[in-house]
Amino acid sequence: MGAGKSTIGRHIADQLHLEFFDSDQEIERRTGADISWVFDIEGEEG
C-alpha cells in the first residue's frame, strides 16, 4: 500500500486511452469493507 501503483496505473491507462481498474476499490466494493480492514484481517496477500 502507498507505493504509487494506482497513480502510475491511472496515468498509463490515460495515455493508452484505457479504463483503469483499481483492485483496492473493487475489493471494497465487493466486500463492503474498508481495504485497510481487509488487510488487517486477511493480510495483504489474502
Describe this structure in words.
The protein has 46 residues and is an all-alpha fold. The chain has a domain at 22-46. It has helices spanning 5-15, 23-31, 35-42. The longest helix is centred in the first third of the chain and has 11 residues, at 5-15. The two termini are 14 Å apart.
Topology overview:
Layout (H helix, E strand, L loop, with lengths): L4 H11 L7 H9 L3 H8 L4
GO molecular function: shikimate kinase activity
Protein name: Shikimate kinase
InterPro entries: P-loop_NTPase, Shikimate/glucono_kinase
What does this entry show, briefly?
The chain is built from three helices and no strands. With 46 residues, it is an all-alpha fold.
| Rg result | 12 Å
Gap between N and C termini = 14 Å
Low-confidence stretches: none
Q: Percent of residues in beta strands?
A: under 5%
* Mean pLDDT metric: 90
The counted number of beta strands is 0
List keywords for this structure.
elongated, mainly alpha, Shikimate/glucono_kinase, kinase, P-loop_NTPase, 0% strand
